[in-house]
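DM from R.C. (forwarded with permission)

"hey, sorry to bug you on a friday — could you get me a structure for this? deadline for the figure draft is monday and I only need the backbone to look sensible"
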Amino acid sequence: MSANRESATDAPAVDTGSGQAVTLSSGTSIVILLLLLLLPLLAKNFIIFQLTTVLIYGIAVLALNILTGGSGQFSLGHSAFYALGAYTSAILMDSAGWNYVLTLPISGIVCFAFGFLFGLPALRLSGVYLALATFALAIATPQLLRLGILEPWTGGVQGLLVDKPDAPFGLPVSPDTWLYYFTLAIAIAIYVASVNLLNSRSGRAMMAIRDNEIAASAMGINIALYKTLAFGVSAGITGIAGGLSAIAVQYVAPDSFTIQLAIALFLGMVVGGVGWLPGSLVGAAFIVFVPNVAESISKGLSGAVFGVLLFVVIFLVPNGARQVALACRNVIGKLKKVQGGRNGG
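My reply, with the result:
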């Protein structure tokens, strides 16, 4: 047990003690942002929809990263908050006639409240027991959404249909392209806010709890407050992602939020690198595109192919995408030194 704990704290993927540790350099961030801005101009509507899905999953994976990488709490139930956010936006759009933009903050607030409240009893749990409790939440959510008492709002088994918004102000872009840029703007805002959170006093308190709960308590940190706060913030961001999903897919139903979604989000966090926020986008791309690649290789054995691909990725880069980023940075640094030595000589 001690060996496992030591390896977990020594792994670079969970080192979130500084701004540089959880973010990319300014130059790299600008290049990635430019690529994200230009991609829709070179792709068809279906590809744009897939890219929008990657951004939405990226937001949800980032939220889970704040909880696990930031405060050290494991969750296999974030599909429940994703579903709650999706249904909140869909119900407000379908029954109340709200504008889709206004539904997202409400989805975030509702999920923050539920996440904070769920975090209170979860204070008694940690590690695998907390994971099992959240796992139970993920399993129960689709069944609860089918309850007859909620059917007037949720649509029961049939779910709800919502309209995809057109571009505002008469902008000459397709609804898919507009929704992509709208989602990208929200993703950037959430990413910046998350980085600032982890670099703030509250973020440092969460990471102190993650590293050593007893030492954090001895330093005067309110363990209960910051653990429930981390749960609430993570759930709130996941709810916004769920709301965006309802708008993008134009449909919500209980079967869309099964335990497979919760496992996919957890998988995206691991592939992207636990505690490394930019890796959330890489993890989201993995869970969106790699199953398609597996199916193109073998439709009958797509699940087995996906499992093999996942095993290869975990075996080669156990610390996720951040390990690749660090390796690339080291190679570039060595090349610069060699080039500098040649120029100096």
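R.C.: lifesaver. The chain is about 75% helix and 0% strand.
me: no worries. The radius of gyration is 21 Å.
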